[in-house]
Amino acid sequence: MRVLLVEDDPQIGQLLLRALKDADCSVEWLRDGEAASVAIDTAYYAVVLLDVDLPRADGIDLLRALRAAGNDVAVLLLTALDDLETRVQGLDVGADDCILEPIEVRELLARIRAVLRRKAGYATTRIGGDSLILDLEKRMLSRNVIAASLSAREFALMHAFLERPGMILSRSQLEDRLYGWGKEVERNVVDVLIHAMRKDQTPTTAPSSSQGSISSYVAARSVGCATSSSATVPLLRMAS
Asked: For the chain, does the N or the C end have fewer beta carbons within 10 angstroms?
């Protein structure tokens, strides 16, 4: 998940940067509103953590401009505990949620998950269909009740597919989900990742009931994807 952190306080910024990276997020940390505005206009982010009191552009003004331009990126405002008026104004302008300082990391991550669920139209942390379910909190993919944990890139890819089932995503859109802003994209990374997840589709041995998980069933990490050269299962589709 790509996160834009806009925070000018070095101590708070370092704390949030470390916590988000520990949660396998790809994070860009900017320290002023003008730079944040340029970044949001030129790159994809799943969520923006936006401090209210910023140099070179106020957080509320930046949020107002985003919404006026039709940008519906998820925005969580970072506000002071006693700043009720700013919180009310931010929510009215278009913030999806407010995070009170001092920030509790576990609550922040839970609120991010909640906002993304609502954006995607889901009521719980589990998204997908009857036979294929992605748990956003545990980062587990279940297929026909067989579950496996995912790497950070596998999770980002499956999240992109399952949050909008049936929607065709371009290769560049998928690459945006897998990489941070300004990072060089590896050649054919999407194709390689999809191929690796489909390659292990068939389990070789059944796990014992005492294992506590069925992660050895790598079939649960495999999904039929339709690309420009392959049309297997139409649940997930990718455009060239």
From this structure: C
φ, ψ for residue 99 (rounded to 5)?
Answer: -110, 125
Structure-token match 């690309």, residue found: 227
Structure tokens, 119: 């954006």
Helix (H, G, I), strand (E, B) or coil at 86: helix
Instruction: Identify the domain boundary among 120, 151, 168.
Output: 120
The pTM assigned to this predicted structure is: 0.67
pLDDT on residue 149: 84
| CATH number of the domain to which 11 belongs | 3.40.50.2300
Our CA angle for 109, 38, 11, nearest 5°, is 45
User: Peptide bond before 207: cis, by omega within 30 degrees of 0?
Assistant: no
Residues 146, 157: Cα–Cα separation, whole Å: 19
The answer to whether 48 and 4 are in contact (CB under 8 A) is: yes
**Which range of residues forms the domain containing residue 216?**
126-239
Q: Are residues 223 and 156 in the same domain?
A: yes
Contacts of 163 (CB under 8 A, 6+ apart): 116, 120, 127
The per-residue pLDDT for 17 is: 95
141 and 226 part of one domain:
yes
Q: What are phi and psi of 83, to 5 degrees?
A: -95, 70
Token digits of residue 27: 């994070």
21 and 99 share one domain: yes
If the chain, 240 residues long, is cut into consecutive pieces of 10 residues, what is the mean pLDDT of each piece?
94 95 91 95 93 92 96 94 90 96 92 88 77 84 82 82 77 74 65 73 39 32 35 38
Considering 91, 120, 149, which residue would you say is the last residue of a domain? 120
**168 and 234, same domain (yes or no):** yes
